[in-house]
Write a structure and sequence with these properties.
The chain is 0% helix and 47% strand. It is built from no helices and eight strands. The strands form two sheets. The chain has a four-stranded antiparallel sheet with strand order 1-2-3-4, with no helix packed on it. It is globular and about 40 Å long. The N and C termini lie far apart (35 Å). The mean pLDDT is 87.
Length: 93
């Protein structure tokens, strides 16, 4: 497996972010997909109880991925002035 800036996992998947690509692996470290939809994506958050991951870019964008379908669901611009990597999470509301 490659080296990553951010690495995340749940019961089914392992996700690595290196800024230019988001890599998705199964629990046995087999590469399932790689996404190049978001530049400068170093940080991610897994939605609790599901196989949805959101990757945050320092360009002020979010990319939402469905890991079961292995596809990009939506891309969202949250700011036009850029953003730091940390400071977001899933919440009940």
């Amino acid at each position: 497996m490659k080296k990553f800036w951010g690495f995340y996992e749940n019961e089914s998947y392992k996700i690595g972010c290196n800024g230019g690509t988001v890599y998705v692996y199964d629990k046995n470290d087999n590469e399932l997909a790689k996404f190049k939809d978001i530049a400068y994506g170093y940080n991610a958050a897994l939605k609790p109880g599901s196989n949805v991951i959101v990757v945050k870019s320092t360009e002020g964008k979010l990319a939402v991925y469905d890991l079961e379908k292995l596809e990009l669901v939506k891309k969202i611009r949250i700011t036009r002035i850029g953003a730091q990597d940390q400071g977001y999470a899933f919440s009940p509301d």
